[in-house]
Each structure stands twice: as C-alpha cells, then as structure tokens.
Amino acid sequence: MAVKIFAAIDVGSYELAMKIFEFSAKGGMKEIDHIRYRIELGTDTYNTGKISHARVEELCDVLSDFAKVMQSYHADAYKAYGTSAIRETVNAPLILEQIKLRTGLDVSLLSNSEQRFMHYKAVASKGEQFTHCIAEGAAVVDIGGGSIQISLFDRDTLVTTQNIRLGILRMREQLMDLKPKTTHYEQLLEELADNQLNVFKRLYLKDKKIANIIIVDDYISHIMQKLGKGQQVITADQFHSFVEMMQKKGAERCAAELGIAQESASLLLPSAILVRRVLKATRAEKIWAPGVSLSDGIAYEYGEAGKYIQNRHDFENDIVACAMNMSKRYQGDKDRNRLLEEVCTNLFDHTKKLHGMGRRERLLLRIAALLNDCGRYVSLEAAAECGYSIIMATEMIGLSHTEREIVANMVRFNKTTFDYGTRMEKETYLKIAKLTAIFRVADGICRSYRTKIRDVRFTVKEDELLIVADSDEEITLEKGFFARKAQLFAEVFGIRPILKQKKKVHTI
After folding, report:
1. H helices within 216-287, ranges in order?
2. pLDDT in tens, the chain (508 residues)
3. Helix H segments across 351-448?
4. With 0-12 CB in 10 A as exposed, 13-18 as middle and 19+ as buried, what is 359?
C-alpha cells in the first residue's frame, strides 16, 4: 500500500495535542511528530459552564498553527476531537463553528464512552503486554481533566466500565480555595477521591482480583518512565514511595526534577494521589503505563477503518460482554435473552436487502436483545420505560450517546406503542424504526420465557416473510402475540411476516 500521512488532534481539558502518523505496509502505524500546547479549557468549563472569549481566541490561534504543521506534512487525512471541556459547555456548537470558520478544521465532539473507547483501543494496540495484563485481572484507569474511567477485566473479559467525576483538573479546582487555608491539602484530595472510589469498590470490586493497574494519562505515565528507568511497569510499593517523596519535597520541585513543565506541577499531586487511592481500593500489585494518548486512539481507529493496520483485539466482544454483565446485574433471563439475540441476528442477516443496515446496527440489535428485560428489575408493570431509563443512564464503553439511545428506544418500543412523531434526526429515527420492527418480530417468536424454540428459519417471498419455528411444544402463546408484534415490520418494510411451526416427527 502507499504511505499514508494522518494527523490526530486532541482538544483536551488542559492541553491541545497533535500527533502526525505514518501508515505503511512495512512499518504499520508509526508516530513521526508530536506537538503539545498547554491551555486549561476545563478550568473555565468546570467553574462557569462556558469557555471565556480569551481562551477561545487562544484555542483558535493554536489550532491554526496545527493546521499549518499538518499541511507541511502533506497529510492525507485528519481527525480532530473535543472532549469534556467543550462537551460540557453550554455554547459548544458556537465554539465549534468559530473553530471551523477561523481555522478550517472540523472538530467533532466525543461522548465520554467514545473517548474512553479510543483510549482503550490505543492500549490494546500494544498487543501481548495488554493481553498478559488483563489475563491476570486488571483495571484500566483512564485519567482525564474532568473525570476518570475505570474499566475492570476479569480473566480477559471486560466486566464493567464506570465513569467517575474525579478528573485531576476538576479536583484541583474544587479544592483551590481551600489550599491556602490548610496544611492538609493532600488529605483533602484523598477524602475527595475516597468519597466516590469507596462506592465503586463496594458495588463493582467485591471479591474481584485486580493484579494490574493500566494507567492512561499525561502525567503519571511520564513519571513512571523515570521511576522505572525506562520501563513501563513499576510495583505499587515503588509508586507509594514516590508519592511520599513528593509530599516531602513538594510538587514543584519534583516536577522540575522529572522534567515536567512548572505550569503543569499543580496537576501532578492530584494525579499521584488519585492513582494511590485507586491502588488502595483495588489492592493491585503493579502499574503499567503504556504511554498512549487520545491521539493514538484516533490514529488507531483511522488505521483500523482503512485496513491499514490489523485488529489485535475483539473490541466488539468487549461491548457485548459489558451488556451481558449489565443484564446479569439486573437479573435478566440469560437463556431467553441469548435465544432472542440469536433469533434477532438471524432475522437481521436474512433481511439485509430489506433494511440495508450493516455490522454496527447488528451489534446494537444484539445489545438490545441482551438488555430487553432489564427494566423488570425496577418495575414489572413499567418495565419498558424503566429499561429505557436504565440504558440511557448507563454508559457502555464504545457506544456513542446516539447508539445508546437507539438501543434504549428498541427496548422501550418493543413493549410500548411506537412513537411515529419522535423528534430526532431522520437517520437515527429510521434506524430505530427498522431495528425495532426486527426486534419485535424476534421477541414475538421468543415470547415465552420457557425458551421452547430450538431453531428458526426465515424465507423472504415476494410480499411475505415466512418464519418456520422448530419446536416440539405448543407455541400457541407465541402465535397469539405474533400478529400484533409483526404489525410494525409490515409497516416499515411492506412485507407481512407469517409464523409457522415445524414439529419433529417421532417414529416408533
């Protein structure tokens, strides 16, 4: 393949960063330049909800310089993403429009789950070391300016991921007024972290064995390179010793000794304290800092989409694993949900010419099948609405807000009247209508919680979708509900589903 040059731009909470990558058949993905500029956009956002005019001016000036550097490399493509500092402002669309008009750069906003998933992809791209770490039991701790994301792995499987509003910039700003008035600043940081980490520990850690912490951040990773003398892995004891030394010497002096810019020193202590409290909560023995950033994740996704690099990890399986663990938490019916998932995907595959959707929508259908009954945990009567609320309130790493909304609406409209007048973008609305139509037909086939169906076959003939269900038991209940469940499918696709039963012939 021809060499491709790609620029990845991260508009972060406390700095702007751009990495230039080269993609080639021989070298794969290779970083060739890295530019960083310190600007605390998050300070404005987390304090006032808006980014000041002066900082927007500075932001546009720096991004204009980035655009010139990118052009000097003759980049074939670029992606620029904003994170929580812009995402949480009340006037985000106006800021993005100013950037576009003044710099020519299109900056898109990442939801938290999309941002963390890119970080996670960047870590997973490290191959064998990542595989080894998660096999022993690991927590990926992704530290940002506004929040941290903790993703737990148990025997290679991603079991949960949770976002906690404990970002280092947010923590510093919350305690800024108290710092001059107390000699116990570090203790206050610890209390602030423990307030939420203790809840996380009680709900999600329990008896899980976490041997390794994988750090994704901009400060601790740099420190660990120094502490480990070039190695990316250090012990928990080594890290504790460093924090004690920093408390004695002071963050400014330690920052100077470690080669960290003085303007970043104020974030060094919150970073270190936060990691120390995570170590205590998880009782992990080792820390690995692969030194990746959002820019690496952006580039990895570009290379993955263009088939310039090969997948080393099944990320789709991680999303499904999270959904399965979420279903378990809300006491879903495992056997029926897996049958529903199988029937849903089978129907999806046999009707591709009708719906025209792809792999991503198929994944959303699988997730909806696994979570279809989660609302019953809260209310049997209002299960559909409760399921919608649970899914919308639960981040699933790798899914955007819109994708989560599609899944939540499938679960809701599976049991309630479809809302033809819903206000959303046309593309999203059509996906919800098509997927819900497929979902309702599959749910009608699997209506009984006794999982009587062994196998289902689908055949599209002119204006009919013939469905043959293989079962020795009576499926009267399924047939009774099926006609009502199939109405939406006929409306959306113009084809009438017909359910027939095939019984096994017993010989004497």
Report:
1. 220-227, 236-249, 251-258, 265-282
2. 688 999 999 999 888 999 999 998 888 899 999 999 989 898 888 888 899 999 999 999 999 999 999 999 999 999 999 998 999 999 999 999 999 999 999 999 998 888 888 888 888 878 788 888 888 889 999 998 888 999 998 877 788 888 898 888 888 888 877 766 666 788 889 999 999 999 999 988 887 889 999 999 877 777 777 766 666 788 999 889 888 888 888 878 887 877 777 777 778 888 889 999 999 999 999 999 888 889 999 999 999 888 888 777 778 888 898 899 899 999 999 988 998 999 999 999 999 999 999 999 999 999 999 999 999 999 999 999 999 999 999 888 888 889 999 999 999 999 998 887 767 888 999 999 999 999 999 998 876 545 556 678 888 888 899 888 777 666 666 676 787 888 999 999 999 998 887 765 444 4
3. 352-355, 359-371, 383-393, 401-413, 426-445
4. exposed
Q: For residues 401 and 399, give the distance between their C-alpha atoms in angstroms, rounded to a whole number.
A: 7
Q: To which residue do tokens 């599959």 refer? A: 442
Are 5 and 21 in contact by the 8 Å Cβ rule? The answer is yes
Distances (CA, A) of 478 to 178, 382, 443, 473: 64, 22, 9, 11
> Which tokens is 385 given?
């609405």
Distances in Å between the Cα of 301 and the Cα atoms of 226, 304, 363, 459 are 30, 5, 18, 37
The sign of the CA dihedral 388, 393, 399, 402 is positive
For residues 410 and 362, the answer to whether their CB atoms sit within 8 Å is no
Separation between Cα atoms, residue 52 and residue 257, nearest integer Å: 33
Per-residue tokens: 202: 């009680």
Q: Report how far residue 321's alpha carbon sits from residue 192's, in angstroms, rounded to the nearest whole number.
A: 31
In the chain the domains, ranked by start, together with CATH numbers, are 4-110 (3.30.420.40), 126-291 (3.30.420.150), 315-502 (1.10.3210.10)
Given a contact cutoff of 8 angstroms between Cβ atoms, the answer to whether 255 and 265 are in contact is yes
CB atoms near residue 422 (< 10 Å): 12
Q: Which helix (H) or strand (E) holds 32?
A: strand 28-38
| 348, 365 contact by CB (below 8 A) | yes
Global pTM? 0.80
Are the C-beta atoms of residues 133 and 154 closer than 8 Å to each other?
no
